[in-house]
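note to self: dont lose this again. the chain is below, predicted strucutre after it. 218 aa total, dont forget to put it in the shared folder this time
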Amino acid sequence: MLQSLQDEKEEKDGSGTSKGAEKVVNVVIGKPIDGTIVTVDDEQYIAAEDADAKRPKPVPKSNRRGNKELMAELDRTKELAEGNKEKYQRLMAEFDNARARSEKENSKMFDYGAKDTLEKLLPIVDDFERALENVPENEKGAFSDGIEMIYKKLMDTLGSIGVEPMNAANKPFDPNFHNAVIHVEDENFPENTVVEEMQKGYMYKDQVLRHSMVKVAN
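---
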């Protein structure tokens, strides 16, 4: 058992007054077998106490049990978070797919509506082309130039929304794009070749807007 001992010494001068006091603190830290008392001064004792304070103390069993429960709860929380993350990713993928399908369907509906309108414009384009092809030489001038300018503007507008002529002449006959209205014997062309395009066909994006009316070599 540790016990603090204090001795005070006083020195008096000739008049009997206290000249100073010296304080010595000894601590009993152990008693050997032979009975000799071993002491240390107060600084050594304080250093020993500091060392004891810094030494890791054992974790109480109750705390250990609590830590295990916390770790188990943390693991469950992590599993739940991972599950929620996977659900979120699946939902986002389904949402993106649904949006893509919706946009595609809306685009198709728009294209169908546009296609119907564009088909009705093609006869007007045909009329412009026939009028320009049949202008007499002596009547060509500002009026015919104006018609040609309007025709060009119309074709540029159609081209900007995806309408393009097929230009089937001199190409192999393809029933997906051509309607054969006349078959002719012509040695100047390979067999099954479009000799003449009698009425222009048109494409709207990747769809046939109107088949070409063609003359085909046998």
